[in-house]
Specification:
The protein is an alpha+beta fold. It has two domains: about 170 residues, Ribosomal Protein S5, domain 2 (2-Layer Sandwich); about 130 residues, GHMP kinase, C-terminal domain (Alpha-Beta Plaits). The protein contains nine helices and twelve strands. Strands 1, 2, 3, 4, 5, 6, 7 and 8 form an eight-stranded mixed beta sheet that branches. It has a four-stranded antiparallel beta sheet with strand order 10-11-9-12. It is globular. Bound molecules: (R)-mevalonate. The site of (R)-mevalonate has 13 residues, from α4. (R)-mevalonate binds next to α4.
């Protein structure tokens, strides 16, 4: 997590002239949707695409002004109190124990909105971090994550918490949602060999709560069938965890493809996602699947340095509106 604050003189006057922080996008490697129902999932931060927030002191009496040029929006928090970001500013300042000061907040992001790469969680995380820095506090990841989760829960229904967690911790994680009385299980994972991934965007925007709501209705109508599907996803995630730790890339590809098949059965894939998945596999990717909530948004392919360029070309030819290559480095937790 990148953070910094600038002070106006050697005496380090407080509050500072400005503060900045950023937060990464994310990719769910495996286990989306089933994670809402208590199965494990693995998520990765995407360090190359980020949301950035800058806060400067506003003129006295100007209130909290937010400016999001990528969203084409500028507003005063008090004039739009129900806006999710206005609420998050209030909740964060309350958490920090400070009265709302006069602030000018600028939010920018290179993460596609509603594209399955955690843009909302990243913007919210960068906002909480920057507010804390501006107020002279450092919040641990679990507190940042809890503030962002409360906001996502209010506006997006029943999130598992994986998006805000991977973005706030900024490292590859194993995540299991626990009941309300227990903290979620969050464990950094071991990756023996770097993962060379290619992300392809369908260009179709779909709010997370729509497929999540459909899955809930299907699960309520047919709990036995859906719980079997979720359990199969959970088993795959365990196997992916082992394949990552041992560096078995071929096995990983097979498992990622099997997770895509289960997501199709759960009902969250789409013809556009499947077209990109098929193009990536035909170009040599040993595994490809949708990532995130589905219906639109992104898919990713596992590649290697030899076939990465071919997979990128194949995705562009197949109609991906954006193609991004990223490497997840080996880690030892
Ligand atoms: C969205 O990135 C992941 C889902 O599993 C929803 C959630 O976990 O809250 C689809």
């Amino acid at each position: 997590m990148m953070m910094d604050a600038q002070y106006d003189d050697a005496a380090s006057a407080f509050p500072p002239l400005s503060a900045r922080a950023s937060a990464p996008g994310k990719l769910i490697l495996c286990g989306e949707h089933a994670v809402v129902y208590g199965q494990p999932a693995i998520a990765l931060p995407l360090p190359d695409i980020r949301a950035h927030v800058e806060i400067t002191a506003g003129s006295p009496g100007s209130g909290v002004r937010l400016n999001a040029p990528d969203l084409g929006r500028a507003w005063i928090a008090d004039a739009h109190p129900d806006d999710p970001l206005s609420e998050l500013v209030r909740a964060t300042l309350r958490h920090l124990g400070v009265d709302p000061p006069d602030l000018h907040i600028t939010l920018t992001s290179t993460i596609p909105i509603a594209g399955g790469m955690g843009s909302g969680a990243a913007i919210a995380t960068a906002l909480v971090r920057t507010l804390a820095t501006f107020m002279g506090h450092t919040l641990p990841p679990e507190q940042v994550s809890a503030l962002v989760y409360a906001s996502e829960e209010r506006f997006h229904g029943t999130p598992s918490g994986i998006d805000n967690t991977v973005v706030a911790y900024d490292q590859p994680i194993w995540f299991e949602r626990r009941g309300p009385a227990h903290p979620n299980l969050i464990t950094p994972i071991s990756i023996a060999e770097p993962l060379t991934l290619v992300v392809g965007d369908t260009g179709i925007r779909s709010a997370t709560r729509l497929p999540v709501g459909m899955v809930r209705r299907q699960w309520q109508a047919n709990p036995t069938h859906y719980e079997q599907l979720f359990a199969q996803v959970g088993t795959l995630v365990q196997q992916v965890h082992t394949a990552l730790a041992t560096g078995e890339q071929a096995t990983l590809g097979v498992l990622i493809n099997a997770n895509q098949t289960l997501l199709e059965q759960i009902g969250v894939s789409s013809s556009e996602l499947e077209h990109l998945v098929a193009a990536a596999r035909a170009a040599g990717a040993p595994g490809a699947k949708l990532s995130g909530a589905g219906w639109g948004g992104v898919m990713f392919a596992l590649t290697n340095p030899d076939n990465q360029a071919a997979v990128m070309t194949a995705l562009t030819r197949a109609g991906a509106t954006r193609v991004l290559a990223t490497t997840i480095h080996a880690t030892q937790p």
